[in-house]
Write a structure and sequence with these properties.
alpha/beta, Arc Repressor Mutant, subunit A, 3 domains, three-stranded antiparallel beta sheet, about 40% helix
C-alpha cells in the first residue's frame, strides 16, 4: 500500500485555506486531490499529529477533516493500519473512462473521432488479412505505419526512414518508454511549468528529479512562451539528463516556441549532454497560423494520432536515430510486447490523408474556441482568457487563487474540471484553470453559465492573493 508523508501532502495541498472553517477546506482539498488523480485511491494518509505539524494547524483541525472525509466515505481508518483514501462506490476520478450523461467533462482536451476514421477502419479490415499468417508481435511497429510516419516527417523537412520510427501505445507510452530507457534514478529532468502532468509522472516514475522552467500563456499574438533566462539557467546549473518540451501549442498554455528559441534550446541540449525530447502531440492543430516545423534529427520526436484522429486508436510513435529506436525497442519487452496491429493499420490508412483530414479538424477547433471565448467574455469577464492560435485548450487566469475550490464547486453543478495545480509542481497554479474547447457551441452555451454559478459560490470564500504565488 502506498503511503503519503506529511511533507508530500503539504506540497500537494498548496494554498488550501479559505475564509470558511479550516476543517472543511482541508477535507475538500484532500478529496479533490483524490478525485483528480493526484493522490491514487488506496493511499495511506499521514498520521493526524504529523500532518498538523506540517501544516501548522491544530491536531483537532486535522482530526475533524479526517472525520469529514470518513463521513463522506472517502477515508477508511483501521486501528493500527492508519487512514486510507478510497473512492466510494459510484464515484470516479476525473480521468475515469465512463461518465454520467448529465455530466459535462472538461478534464479531457480531446475531440471525438474524425469522420474519416470510420472508412479507415473498414479498409483496415481488408489490410489485416496480410498480417494474420504472422504472430502479430510488432515491437518496432507495422512496416506500413512506420513508412507512413517517416514519409510525413520527410514531407515536413526532416528526412526520415522507417528504421528511425518506433510505434507505441500512444504518446504517453512513448514518453514513459524514453524516460525508462534514458534515465537513472536521481537524474535531473527539465520539464515545463505548467506542463503535461502525465509526462511529469513518467519522469518521476523513472526516478527523475524535475527541474521546472516557466511557460506562460499568450496575452496576444507573439507574447507568452518559455522563459529564456530560466531555460539557460536550468541547463547550465543542473545539466539535465533529459529535457521534455511540448513546443507546438503547448499543453496547457497553447504557446508556440519561436524558431530562434528552438535553435538555442537545441544548442543548450547539445552543449550540456542533454537528451532533448519534443512532444508534437498537438503540433498539427494550428487553426490560425502555421504548423511549427520539426526539430533537428538528433532530437527525439514524439507524435500521436490521438488529438488529430481519435484517442481511441491509442497509437503514437517515436522518431529518433535508428540506434535509439533499437534501444527503445529493447526496453519494451519487460513491460509489453508491441502495439496492436489492427489499430496501426487504421492509422496507416489515415496518415497519407492527414492534411486533408486536418482541414476539417482545424475548422472545428476554431469554431469551438470562438464559442468558448465568447461565452467566457459574456459570463465571466473578470477571467483573463489567453489568445491561442491552435491546440485544444485555454489556460485561463482567475482573479483569485481558487482553482481547486472552483473544481469542487463545479462538480456540484455537473461540470468536471481539472484544477490548475494538476499541471504544476507542489500545488502551484491555483490562479489558473485549463478549459478545453472540445465541446460544441450548444454544450458551451449550457456549460459556461454553470461555471459562472460555481465561480460565484467560491468567489467570496477564497483567500486574498499572495504577492508571489508561484516560485520556480
Amino acid at each position: 500500500m502506498a503511503s503519503l508523508s506529511a511533507s508530500s501532502l503539504r506540497h500537494l495541498l498548496g494554498d488550501w485555506h479559505d475564509d470558511g472553517p479550516a476543517l472543511r477546506a482541508l477535507a475538500d482539498r484532500i478529496r479533490l486531490l483524490l478525485l483528480d488523480g493526484r493522490i491514487p485511491s488506496g493511499t495511506r494518509l499521514p498520521a493526524e499529529r504529523e500532518l498538523a505539524a506540517a501544516l501548522s494547524v491544530s491536531r483537532t483541525t486535522v482530526a475533524a477533516a479526517y472525520a469529514r472525509l470518513r463521513d463522506q466515505e472517502h477515508l477508511h481508518s483501521v486501528r493500527g493500519s492508519g487512514s486510507v483514501l478510497r473512492l466510494p462506490a459510484g464515484e470516479q476520478p476525473a480521468e475515469a473512462p465512463h461518465r454520467s450523461p448529465a455530466t459535462v467533462d472538461l478534464t479531457r482536451a480531446a475531440l471525438p473521432a474524425a469522420p474519416e476514421v470510420q472508412a479507415a477502419v473498414e479498409a483496415a479490415v481488408a489490410d489485416l488479412r496480410a498480417h494474420l499468417p504472422g504472430d502479430g508481435y510488432e515491437l518496432l511497429g507495422v512496416a506500413d505505419l512506420r513508412r507512413a510516419v517517416a514519409d510525413r516527417y520527410t514531407a515536413r523537412g526532416l528526412p526520415t526512414t522507417a528504421e528511425e520510427v518506433l510505434v507505441t501505445l500512444g504518446a504517453q507510452h512513448a514518453v514513459g518508454l524514453v524516460c525508462r530507457a534514458v534515465l537513472t534514478p536521481g537524474d535531473r529532468v527539465l520539464v515545463e511549468s505548467p506542463g503535461y502532468p502525465h509526462a511529469l509522472d513518467a519522469a518521476r516514475a523513472a526516478g527523475g528529479r524535475p527541474v521546472a522552467v516557466p511557460v506562460t500563456a499568450a496575452a496576444g499574438p507573439g507574447s507568452g512562451g518559455w522563459d529564456e533566462e530560466a531555460l539557460q539557467e536550468a541547463f547550465s546549473r543542473t545539466r539535465p539528463a533529459l529535457a521534455y518540451l511540448m513546443p507546438g501549442f503547448h499543453n496547457p498554455t497553447g504557446s508556440v516556441m519561436p524558431a530562434d528559441q528552438r535553435r538555442r534550446v537545441v544548442d543548450l541540449a547539445r552543449r550540456h549532454g542533454t537528451r532533448l525530447v519534443v512532444d508534437e502531440t498537438t503540433n498539427d492543430l494550428a487553426f490560425d497560423g502555421e504548423v511549427p516545423a520539426p526539430f533537428p534529427a538528433d532530437v527525439v520526436h514524439v507524435g500521436s494520432a490521438a488529438k488529430s484522429l481519435w484517442g481511441g486508436l491509442r497509437i503514437g510513435w517515436v522518431r529518433a536515430d535508428a540506434a535509439t529506436v533499437r534501444h527503445l525497442a529493447a526496453h519494451r519487452a519487460p513491460w509489453e510486447l508491441g502495439t496492436p496491429v489492427f489499430e496501426q493499420l487504421v492509422v496507416a490508412r489515415c496518415l497519407p490523408r492527414l492534411d486533408e483530414i486536418l482541414v476539417g479538424r482545424r475548422r472545428e477547433l476554431r469554431s469551438r474556441r470562438d464559442a468558448l471565448v465568447t461565452g467566457l467574455a459574456a459570463q465571466l469577464p473578470e477571467w483573463e482568457v489567453p489568445h491561442v492560435d491552435g491546440g485544444l485548450a485555454l489556460w485561463v487566469r482567475l482573479p483569485t487563487p481558487a482553482s481547486s475550490a472552483l473544481a469542487v464547486a463545479a462538480r456540484r453543478h455537473g461540470v468536471l474540471l481539472t484544477a490548475g495545480p494538476r499541471f504544476g509542481l507542489d500545488g502551484a497554479f491555483e490562479r489558473h484553470l485549463r478549459l478545453p474547447f472540445n465541446a460544441d457551441a450548444a454544450t458551451v452555451r449550457d456549460t459556461v453559465p454553470l461555471l459562472a454559478r460555481a465561480w460565484r459560490e467560491v468567489g467570496t470564500s477564497v483567500p486574498a492573493p499572495r504577492p508571489f504565488e508561484v516560485v520556480v
